[in-house]
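INPUT
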Amino acid sequence: MRKTTLFGSQTEIELAIKQRKQKGFVGQVIFIAATILAVLFLMLLLLSVLDSVFGYMVVRNEIEPSKFVPGTNFTQEFSREDLERVAEEHLSSGILRRVIHEKPISDRSDKDLIHIIDQYIIKPKVLRTWGLWDSVTKQEAIEAFVQENEGAQMVFRSWISPSFITSDQSADPLQAGIRTALLGSLWIILITFLVAFPIGVGAAIYLEEYAQDNRLNRILQLNIFNLSAVPSIIYGLLGLAVFVRAMEPITSGSMLLGFSDNTANGRTILSGGLTLALLVLPIIIINTQEALKAIPDSLRMSAFGVGATKWQTIWYHVLPASIDRILTGTILALSRALGETAPLVVIGASTFISVDPTGIFSKFTTLPIQIYQWSARPQGAYRNIAAAAIVSLLILLLVMNSAAIHMRNKITKKKRLL
Amino acid sequence: MAWLKIIHFSFYRNTFLTFYIYRKCKTTSTEESMKKIVVLILTLLVISSLSAGGKQEASVTAANQDEKNLSWMEGPSVHGLPGVNPLKVTGNIITAGSSTVFPLSERMAERFKDEGYGGTITIDSIGSGAGFERFTVAGETDIANASRGIKQSEIEAAHEIGRDPIEFRVGTDALAVTVSKENTFLKNVTLEELAQIFGAAARWSDVNPDWPNQPIQRFIPGTDSGTFDYFAEEVFNKQVEPLLSASNVQLSEDDNILVQGIKGSPYAIGFFGYAYYAENADSLNIVAIEGVEASAENVDNNSYPLARPLYIYSDATILQNKPQVAAFINFYLSYVNEEVVDVGYFPANEEAIERGRAAWLKAMGL
Amino acid sequence: MANIRRKPTITSYVPGTILFLFALISIIITIGIAVILIRESYLFFNDPEVDLWGFLTGKQWQPMINKFGILPLLNATFTTSIIAMMLGIPVGLCVAVYLSEYASDKTRAILKPVLEVLAGIPTIVYGYFALTFMTPMLRGIFGEGVVEIYNTASAGLVIGILVLPMIATMAEDAIGSVPKELRLAAYALGGTKLETTFKVIIPAALSGLSATFLLSLSRAIGETMIVALAAGAGPKLTANPFEAAETITGYIVRISGGDVSYNSVDYNSIFALGLVLFVITFTLNLVSRKISQKFHQEYD
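OUTPUT
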């Protein structure tokens, strides 16, 4: 072997190779670090949300339970007679009237009476809250705070609970819940699905099966790709101008049902659902196109071979074969719509709405908008319920995505067995 | 939850019908598939109108009853107004307007619901100006919440759509000029200093050389807000230009965003309704105006310069056609003084509320 | 040859036409967007107080006193987007390289779902994260006097985290679509993995990568909720990312949340801003598509 080559002597080459290998190693470390960073961000995000969902809070009762039954610290310690007596004697007349109207006091369960007495007589007020991490590490500081404020108590609370999901909006963070927002979200997603799914799948079938490669169809295809990248707030503006304002008679329901109470206003679930339908339409179209492309041509050809028309092959052969992927993609698109806030804020969701939506012409608020409003409020307790609402939203999305995957697996299995 | 059962049942019935028709037409041809599509669309329309049908029935039955449904008036009379039993009213109440009045209306609405109201109440916090717009121009709301008096132009606009606004005074606000708890130098301002702080001055030291040489960070309500209008009127003599062209200005109709911003720096300052200060008293300091502090007596004897009235507006025809609105306003006027201090505002003086009560009685023809 | 095909009846054209009409709806949407934005912007520019030049170059945005300069809003939008890109592009590219070149199948099977989860989280959650975690962290690092409670830096960083999965997946697709032969040829010549990646693969995938960057930039520009919660509520022309400044999208959301009256100059202004936003993002999308198409042909 020659001692010197074109690239230098043997030792120089070995040195160069070593340097390059070292650089390669450094590069690999950087890449792995970047990946770890990305995973770290995700964990940070989820943990910071979870941190606010559980923790200590310091509350002060407006009236201490010991005033009614000496020696007790919580209403849970009251006896049955005490509960009934306190409820009857100390609830304000208006509230007592309603409570009796719904169910007489003697018929109510202990838990029920405790809840009522806490809510209307004891009236705990949150002084300050701490996240999970702080609750574990800063116990002394919390206890010091309790000492500073007379009459205060330290209570551990999980802000997400079944009552959180079933209560409706309230100004008091202890009583507030997401029921109205959750129902609003679900109603809107229903409308979005009913509108976007047929149109989207239909358009995709056209583009895949019927369209020839002429200029019009290429423009159509390009147009759909562009629409999928438009920021969501533009759809909000479109919805505001078209559905809320221009189509107001239709979307407010006054044309269809002749409302007499003069509350006609285009800011209804129907407008919200239609706007989100426009938003997810391009996604559904693109996804369905991909699903249809995946079906081998031989299926179509064999159907033609036995004399089926084009529509018959599509409806009876191609669609059933691709329906699993189409449905999965649609559900994923809908879960994106579930998390959309900006278009619905532009259309005009309500700030305080006290009763669940009763139909598509109701005013609405949705879960992401509720999170937005609660996040914007500076008092500590609202951070906690915003975090609890976020956890509910994420769970809902998880359920939807799992349902999508489960459904796809089921249908695919069925296909294989055939 | 009866409406849920109705939709459940009819949804299944209609779906069943659709599939039944599908099976019948199994001999495939395009006409059949067209028919199926038409049937599906009709089914969906039927379902949707059924789901809103519940509401329609409610309004139909309301119209069938007497014009003045007064069965909810029972119980002891409060301050001269007939007693209200919220259990006996239903329907919807739509209100919108001032973000200052919002916490008060929200509290009264919650209490109304707690005592048995079964219908819907919607309150939108969009600013007094926008609230009047919805009430007098679009005619969408039943009640307008406002932290300033209604303007003549707004009254005329209301006349054009057949409404005659009735004013009900519900409370008094002491406009709170606030700084963060870390701000140690500002305890008292004069009105002229306020004009400079929120207007032309760029740094604190420009207004008063004793103050720090730091840029002023301003957080003020947005232009749709009655609070904004009021401040411009009192401090800047109705000029909005100096307020808006000041440097470092953050505007928002959402007072919570302002609170958040002021908390963030010792050199921040802002103003909003007293309730938002009261809610955050542990992290904000309120500044005295011309040496006068914002307290109940100073508001009562009119010595606090920035005390302003809080109103709700409605119209006699609405009160008569929608008994739930009449009941709610009655309830509001009867019990507002019990709740107003807890919410963070100050009670209006008795005569002002009395005038509102008299106006209510007159509008109801009692 | 005898024509054994069934004679096409009128009704056989029906499904195709109906579906064509469905597809046309997408064109109607685009036309609708264009018409609405242009019409309301026209009303906006028609207002005697507004002129186009002042709109594009003015330094103050305060419609109530007739100041219609878009520069503060535009500046804030670009500040947040550029900060987002500064975080998202390096990290995203490194993650993509790792996933396509270095990771084993098992690792990839774990990491790709993680990225997809990150991509599926609603933006409002990111907004909450920016306000409750990122801002206090920045204030802790740089001091409370330096970082205001609303600032564009924390919004920008969180937008970067938002687009990170998008950049990673699209870049990984681009890198993965480079033909294997190129890679093998480089190895055969004695290149290390790092050298191959940076000197051969990335230039080869440049079209896909530039498309990725442009698309993610357009996504960052159009992002609304994160800036609405964390960036600020007042237009301010500043180069300091630690100060509060409102972006175009933040302004639109704030004004429509406060209920605009139709036909006021406020109402029309949000459409004019929407038009600017649409033009910017549309151009970016179009350019990115053109680039990816043009360079793609070279390797077919």
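end of record. The first strand of chain C starts at residue 61 and ends at 62.
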